[in-house]
Amino acid sequence: MEYKLLFKDYSKALGKGKLLGLKCSDCNNITVPPKMTCQECGGTNLEIVEVTKKGKIVTFTVVSVAPEGRENEAPYITALVELDQGPWIMGNIANVEPSETTMDIIGKEVKLSFRNFPGDRYAPGNQARPTFTLV
After folding, report:
1. In terms of domains, do 90 and 107 share one?
2. Which is deepest, 10, 25, 78, 134, by most CB within 10 Å?
3. What is the domain range of residue 97?
4. Cα 44 to chain center, whole Å?
5. Alpha carbon of 62 to those of 66, 74, 118, 119: distances in Å?
Protein backbone atom coordinates (compact mmCIF):
# COMPACT_ATOMS: atom_id res chain seq x y z
CA MET A 1 0.00 0.00 0.00
CA GLU A 2 1.32 3.46 -0.82
CA TYR A 3 0.44 6.96 0.24
CA LYS A 4 -1.67 8.85 -2.31
CA LEU A 5 -0.60 12.19 -0.80
CA LEU A 6 2.66 12.51 1.10
CA PHE A 7 2.75 14.91 4.04
CA LYS A 8 5.60 16.87 2.42
CA ASP A 9 3.40 17.41 -0.68
CA TYR A 10 0.46 18.41 1.54
CA SER A 11 2.70 20.94 3.32
CA LYS A 12 4.09 22.29 0.03
CA ALA A 13 0.57 22.80 -1.34
CA LEU A 14 -0.49 24.50 1.90
CA GLY A 15 2.45 26.88 1.50
CA LYS A 16 1.02 27.82 -1.90
CA GLY A 17 -2.44 28.49 -0.46
CA LYS A 18 -4.04 25.13 -1.32
CA LEU A 19 -5.50 22.77 1.26
CA LEU A 20 -5.38 19.22 -0.08
CA GLY A 21 -7.20 16.21 1.29
CA LEU A 22 -8.11 12.70 0.27
CA LYS A 23 -11.67 11.86 -0.80
CA CYS A 24 -12.74 8.26 -0.31
CA SER A 25 -14.53 6.73 -3.29
CA ASP A 26 -16.17 4.17 -0.99
CA CYS A 27 -17.85 6.49 1.56
CA ASN A 28 -17.25 10.03 0.16
CA ASN A 29 -15.50 11.11 3.40
CA ILE A 30 -12.67 13.63 3.07
CA THR A 31 -9.56 13.06 5.19
CA VAL A 32 -7.30 15.99 6.13
CA PRO A 33 -4.36 15.95 6.80
CA PRO A 34 -3.44 13.00 4.57
CA LYS A 35 -3.34 9.47 5.89
CA MET A 36 -2.79 6.11 4.22
CA THR A 37 -6.47 5.13 4.53
CA CYS A 38 -9.84 6.84 4.89
CA GLN A 39 -10.27 7.89 8.52
CA GLU A 40 -13.98 7.01 8.34
CA CYS A 41 -14.17 3.57 6.71
CA GLY A 42 -10.54 2.51 6.34
CA GLY A 43 -10.86 2.35 2.55
CA THR A 44 -7.85 2.78 0.29
CA ASN A 45 -9.66 3.98 -2.84
CA LEU A 46 -8.68 7.65 -2.36
CA GLU A 47 -8.26 10.60 -4.68
CA ILE A 48 -6.54 13.93 -3.99
CA VAL A 49 -8.97 16.87 -3.80
CA GLU A 50 -8.69 20.55 -2.89
CA VAL A 51 -10.66 21.23 0.28
CA THR A 52 -12.62 24.34 1.30
CA LYS A 53 -10.82 26.85 3.48
CA LYS A 54 -13.80 27.81 5.65
CA GLY A 55 -15.15 26.22 8.79
CA LYS A 56 -16.21 26.64 12.41
CA ILE A 57 -14.29 26.34 15.66
CA VAL A 58 -15.23 23.15 17.52
CA THR A 59 -12.88 23.56 20.49
CA PHE A 60 -9.65 25.32 21.39
CA THR A 61 -6.89 25.61 23.95
CA VAL A 62 -4.51 28.37 24.94
CA VAL A 63 -0.94 27.10 24.82
CA SER A 64 1.14 28.68 27.57
CA VAL A 65 4.17 26.38 27.41
CA ALA A 66 5.27 26.14 23.78
CA PRO A 67 7.22 23.29 22.21
CA GLU A 68 10.84 23.56 21.12
CA GLY A 69 11.34 26.27 18.53
CA ARG A 70 8.21 28.22 19.48
CA GLU A 71 9.09 29.24 23.03
CA ASN A 72 8.94 32.96 22.17
CA GLU A 73 5.42 32.68 20.73
CA ALA A 74 3.54 31.55 23.84
CA PRO A 75 0.81 32.12 24.69
CA TYR A 76 -1.10 31.26 21.51
CA ILE A 77 -4.39 29.60 20.60
CA THR A 78 -4.66 26.20 18.93
CA ALA A 79 -8.13 25.25 17.69
CA LEU A 80 -9.86 22.25 16.21
CA VAL A 81 -11.94 23.42 13.24
CA GLU A 82 -14.65 21.54 11.36
CA LEU A 83 -14.32 22.53 7.71
CA ASP A 84 -17.46 23.12 5.64
CA GLN A 85 -16.82 19.86 3.71
CA GLY A 86 -16.65 17.83 6.93
CA PRO A 87 -13.05 17.14 7.92
CA TRP A 88 -11.71 18.44 11.21
CA ILE A 89 -8.29 20.09 11.19
CA MET A 90 -6.12 21.68 13.84
CA GLY A 91 -4.35 25.02 13.54
CA ASN A 92 -3.53 28.25 15.32
CA ILE A 93 -5.98 31.16 15.57
CA ALA A 94 -4.12 34.25 14.37
CA ASN A 95 -6.28 37.28 15.08
CA VAL A 96 -7.48 36.65 18.65
CA GLU A 97 -5.64 37.70 21.80
CA PRO A 98 -5.10 34.55 23.92
CA SER A 99 -5.54 36.38 27.24
CA GLU A 100 -8.94 37.69 26.12
CA THR A 101 -10.26 34.43 24.63
CA THR A 102 -13.47 33.00 26.05
CA MET A 103 -15.69 30.05 25.21
CA ASP A 104 -17.62 32.45 22.95
CA ILE A 105 -15.26 31.65 20.05
CA ILE A 106 -16.63 28.11 19.83
CA GLY A 107 -18.90 27.95 16.79
CA LYS A 108 -17.39 31.09 15.22
CA GLU A 109 -16.61 30.96 11.52
CA VAL A 110 -12.99 30.97 10.45
CA LYS A 111 -11.01 31.12 7.24
CA LEU A 112 -7.86 29.09 6.68
CA SER A 113 -4.50 30.44 5.63
CA PHE A 114 -1.06 29.12 6.47
CA ARG A 115 2.14 30.03 8.24
CA ASN A 116 5.63 28.62 7.92
CA PHE A 117 6.86 27.25 11.21
CA PRO A 118 10.52 26.58 11.90
CA GLY A 119 11.69 23.02 12.12
CA ASP A 120 13.12 21.54 15.27
CA ARG A 121 15.66 18.78 15.78
CA TYR A 122 13.09 16.25 14.46
CA ALA A 123 11.78 18.18 11.43
CA PRO A 124 13.57 18.79 8.13
CA GLY A 125 13.29 22.59 8.23
CA ASN A 126 10.43 25.06 7.83
CA GLN A 127 7.01 23.63 7.04
CA ALA A 128 3.66 25.26 6.32
CA ARG A 129 0.91 24.62 8.86
CA PRO A 130 -2.75 25.69 9.01
CA THR A 131 -3.62 29.02 10.61
CA PHE A 132 -7.13 30.40 11.00
CA THR A 133 -8.59 33.88 11.29
CA LEU A 134 -12.09 34.74 12.52
CA VAL A 135 -14.40 35.80 9.69
Report:
1. yes
2. 10
3. 53-135
4. 22
5. 10, 9, 20, 21
Residue 24 has φ and ψ, to the nearest 5°, of -85, 125
- How many structural domains does the chain have? 2
| Whether residues 57 and 106 fall in one domain | yes
67-117 pLDDT, tens digit per residue, is: 777 778 899 999 999 999 999 999 999 989 999 999 999 999 999 988 877
Q: Is 69 found in the same domain as 22? A: no
Task: Please report, for the domain that includes residue 115, its CATH number.
Answer: 2.40.50.840
Q: Are strands 127-134 and 88-93 parallel, antiparallel or unpaired?
A: parallel
- Assess whether 46 and 63 both reside in one domain: no
Q: At CA 100, angle to CA 84 and CA 113, rounded to 5? A: 35
pTM value? 0.86
Cα 132 to Cα 78: distance, rounded to the nearest angstrom: 9
